[in-house]
Amino acid sequence: MSEERAIYRVDRAAPDSLEAFKSRPCALPFHDPGYTAPKPSEIDALIQLAGWSQVETAKIAGVNFKAGKGSTTVRKWRTPVDSSEHRGIPYAAWRIMLAAAGVVTIDPADYTRDQLMRVAE
Fold it and tell me: Tens of pLDDT along 68-92?
């Protein structure tokens, strides 16, 4: 049984729908010149909009968690950058989360050697 959860966001710059993530620089492939790493507010927004708990997020991203307690790693990704507790999210974990939420697809054709070499030029 799923329950409705209200989403309250302090950072108005964070996306307010999963669809809105599709046009964000943080949703671009890493090799795209326009890519920027996600801000903690974007990570938090994705988790909330997808309706995931810390444990569910940790399982998707492949990081440690404790059942019933959550994930220190996920918490640190969501912590403001100016905090000593903050840790950047690895690109691979972020991309898998975007794919799991239906924001992006991972198309092997985007990662062929020819495609990657064209980007490097």
Answer: 889 999 999 999 999 999 999 999 9
C-alpha 45/C-alpha 91 separation (Å) is 17
Residue 70 exposure: Cα atoms within 13 Å on the Cβ side: 10
Per the CB < 8 A criterion, the answer to whether 86 and 5 are in contact is no
Helix, strand or coil for residue 66? Answer: strand
Q: Is residue 23 part of a domain?
A: no
Q: Which two tokens stand for residue 71?
A: 């994930």
**CA–CA distance, 49 with 115 (Å, rounded to integer):** 32
Q: Is residue 27 part of a domain?
A: no
Supply the DSSP string of 30-65, one letter for each residue: TTSTT--PPPHHHHHHHHHHHT--HHHHHHHHT---
Average pLDDT over every residue of 92-106: 95
